[in-house]
Structure to design on (322 residues):
């Protein structure tokens, strides 16, 4: 006997901070967003063995949004949560370029805030969070599977309403991002990125941390400000050790060489996703036999080059607007 889960994750893009919207997109995703309440127990009750009161210091939504089998049409949403909202090129298909800032005056995209609603069983238990954004983002893929995207979320006001604000239908006419259609390119300059294919990629994990954060000010129970900070971008690659590039990476840890690295998911000209970046080799380790493969793991740390090129995630899809 089969069963079908009725759990849902729905989002809607906000135009104004502090003002939530009705959700209008149902995602192929899971979520663990929940209210985090900071309750304060004062200690000034002199003469009492037990505290007699408490008050709430702050409330915020925290948790994760996970696309366990990412699709080209929906990866735009966690990317915008983490990197901001770009303006797509004319289409179709439309090209979305999520740039990483290189200085305080260059490359910084405008915040893109979302209203998120997550229900455990239709309207049985519902969390609604406004001003949602991602404070870290992870994109990973393993041979034989699809890409997985995980966004660690923060936000503003959070409530437990009785019902969803809307019930949009999930779109099943989507295109999966598969590792079987994923290529790795490693070149020496940003201008030449995406030229030299590296064979025998087994796994990758790209992570962006510490780029965006919430600000809590007096006068509000909820975080009502957002800021950007110096970020950390890492890329872990696992290759078959027999690949010639594996030895090159192993040697590079002893040098100051920079690499222009691209992870590219490609179906055709209408569906693609490129994760571009400038990196240095930070760590290399040899792993045990894995499914009959002798592997090597390379950890790369994101940098900018002499021309201030840092990185970008470029998505081509038929989606015209968030």
């Amino acid at each position: 006997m089969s069963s079908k889960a009725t759990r849902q994750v729905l989002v809607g893009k906000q135009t104004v901070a502090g003002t939530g919207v009705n959700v209008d997109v149902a995602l192929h995703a899971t979520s663990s967003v929940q209210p985090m309440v900071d309750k304060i127990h004062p200690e000034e009750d002199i003469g009492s063995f037990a505290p007699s009161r408490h008050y709430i210091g702050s409330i915020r939504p925290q948790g994760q949004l996970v696309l366990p089998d990412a699709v080209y049409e929906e990866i735009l949403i966690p990317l915008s949560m983490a990197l901001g909202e770009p303006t797509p090129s004319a289409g179709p298909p439309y090209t979305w370029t999520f740039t990483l800032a290189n200085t305080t005056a260059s490359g910084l995209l405008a915040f893109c805030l979302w209203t998120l609603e997550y229900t455990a069983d239709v309207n049985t238990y519902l969390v609604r969070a406004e001003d949602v954004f991602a404070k870290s983002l992870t994109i990973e893929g393993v041979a034989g599977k699809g890409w997985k995207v995980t966004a660690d979320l923060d936000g503003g006001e959070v409530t437990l309403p009785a019902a969803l604000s809307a019930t949009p239908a999930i779109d099943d006419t989507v295109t999966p991002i598969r590792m079987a259609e994923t290529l790795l390119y490693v070149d020496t300059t940003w201008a030449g990125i995406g030229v030299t294919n590296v064979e025998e990629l087994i796994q990758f994990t790209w992570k962006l941390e510490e780029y965006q954060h919430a600000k809590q000010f007096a006068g509000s129970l909820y975080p009502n400000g957002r800021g950007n900070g110096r970020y950390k971008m890492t890329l872990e690659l696992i290759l078959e050790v027999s690949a010639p590039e594996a030895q090159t990476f192993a040697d590079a840890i002893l040098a100051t060489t920079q690499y222009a690295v691209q992870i590219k998911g490609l179906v055709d000209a209408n569906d693609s996703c490129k994760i571009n970046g400038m990196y240095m080799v930070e760590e290399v380790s040899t792993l045990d036999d894995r499914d009959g493969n002798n592997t090597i793991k390379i950890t790369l740390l994101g940098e900018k080059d002499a021309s201030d090129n840092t990185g970008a995630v470029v998505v081509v899809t038929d989606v015209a607007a968030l």
User: Anything to note?
Assistant: The helical segments are 76-83, 244-252. Residues 8-36+60-317 form one domain. The mean pLDDT is 91. The CA atoms of residues 198 and 244 lie 9 Å apart.
